[in-house]
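User: Predict the full complex structure for these chains.
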Amino acid sequence: MMVTRAPARTRLLRAADRLLFTRGVQATPVDDLLREAETSAATLYAQFGSKDGLLAEALEGRLANWQAVWDAHIAEASDDTSRLLAIFDALLAYRDGERVSARWCAFLATASEISNPPKPVRTVLDADSALLRKRLLHLSRPLAGDRAAELADAVELMYSGVLASFLRGDPADPISVGRRSAEALAASYRS
Amino acid sequence: MMVTRAPARTRLLRAADRLLFTRGVQATPVDDLLREAETSAATLYAQFGSKDGLLAEALEGRLANWQAVWDAHIAEASDDTSRLLAIFDALLAYRDGERVSARWCAFLATASEISNPPKPVRTVLDADSALLRKRLLHLSRPLAGDRAAELADAVELMYSGVLASFLRGDPADPISVGRRSAEALAASYRS
DNA sequence: CGAAAACTAAAACGTACGTTACTGTATCCA
DNA sequence: TGGATACAGTAACGTACGTTTTAGTTTTCG
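Assistant: Here is the predicted structure of the four-chain assembly.
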């Protein structure tokens, strides 16, 4: 029976997703990506142009996946409060997903590591933060009315704090701490 | 008139503090540090043994400075709540300090960039998180009693979230958002 | 003073890395 | 079937970087 492998392009994206965000972008040599993807340098540069090009597409994939998971958890929620807090449930599900491995947040890690990213990378990083801000603001509206911006900012900080806590390794279960805290904050904005 | 320069060791530490945490550790070549410090490679390796050794000592300096600023702001505070919230006032003062320049947090940035840091670096990073946890727990006690650990965890997330927001560039004034949110959280823990 | 220590300048070394080029092979499609 | 396309394997190139070495100069201090 013939075993069909995924195309080289897909294997490269998977390898990039796995290695770049666990070991670090600069800390991962192209050769490691090639070995992990079981492909050759010529293929990488034909498909993505450069290591940065591969990084950009890997980030785009992460963003699409994360957005989908977040979407699903918002849709499942039954009231305004749990829709706002769905970001924490989504994060829990996203991190437990099979194909997701990272030390903390792929976008923030990349932003931290590369001070002046090439345009395609910069674009994805901005898109991630824009998505976060836009959605939280929208979800805060029914809860806080014209003070929605304040609540959204507070929840955004809590969310980023949870991500940073993965890096710190403390507290042990940052997601539930973050969720509970955001819930208390949302309650205090009830008008 | 004779112009006395600071000793090479100090100049190297200052250069490291300035460059490593704004451009990134790996993104800053040793040659740039030498040029900025107006010294030579032989001096760097005689004094610090390696680039990592210099990094470790630069981080130790950051930690000492930060601890001192935080100390001072705790001492100035007049009640239990403002002592807990002093971390945000200290952060504001620390970031506005003359000699401090960084994209966000030197410790978290280093932890993110270097997945397996050499021992001296690892030690400082751990010390930073330990200081944060220990102090917040201590300052939470008079406000939350036996629920102090929960409040401390929540404030730790808010604080880390403020730091991460510097990286995101959003919201615009994360420190005051964080302080206000932590204040609301502390109030909800009043027993 | 005079020796030891600190420092500068510059070259050299070894290596790691991103990228390109070359060659051969398998796969797809008209 | 046959030619184009995708891909693997490998070698090579150029360069950037951390570190060492050598040699000469200044500073420190008993």
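Chain B has one domain: 51-190.
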